[in-house]
Amino acid sequence: MKTLAIVDNDNWTTDGLVMFMNSQMPELDIIWTSRTGEEALRHIDADNPDVMLVDMSLGEMSGTDLITRIRQHNRTIGIVAMTAFPLERYADYAAKAGAQAMVSKRFPKHMLEVIKTVGSGGVGEPIGAIHFLPVTQAFAMVSKPLKGTKSLSATERKIVDLCSQGFTSGEIAQQMGKAVPTVNTHLQRAMEKTGARNRTQLVAMYLQSQIY
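and the corresponding structure tokens:
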């Protein structure tokens, strides 16, 4: 492994990680950092790193959505998801999105070891019952076209799930820290992906998919 990219919407976290890694592993070239998923995707178009360190809580585009979008088209970048929350909260999302490991921000030395492992083609340790796949296998899994509610992004699933609990767009926007038009846009995209005629049918399809 020679190059690393970091995606985190907290400048303090990013600056701290850059300083720590430069001191502990000076041969590692941190080629770029990004605060948003969209910005990270633009960077990737110009300069692919060997490994990406991706925060799961990015804001408008979640870490899960970013990892999925990368893995759907890229079979070379090793992805390490990170979070300040308990790892169990995001491990399943990260693994299904195509990440090779999940680490805690609280343990930077362990994070660096995992980055080295992923950069060498390996995967991180299982988290509970959640296992991670090597890059090529993760690419094969995520790049398969998904249908119905399985095609929804993590953000879209979260919004539809809240709809199924009876929350309005305004209430969902408040809970998720988004604008109401943004929530409605996600719902519209979810209906287009699933073929649902309206929000009621979308929720019914989602609830049915949770049974089987």
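(Above: one complete record from the training split.) The chain has a mean pLDDT of 91.
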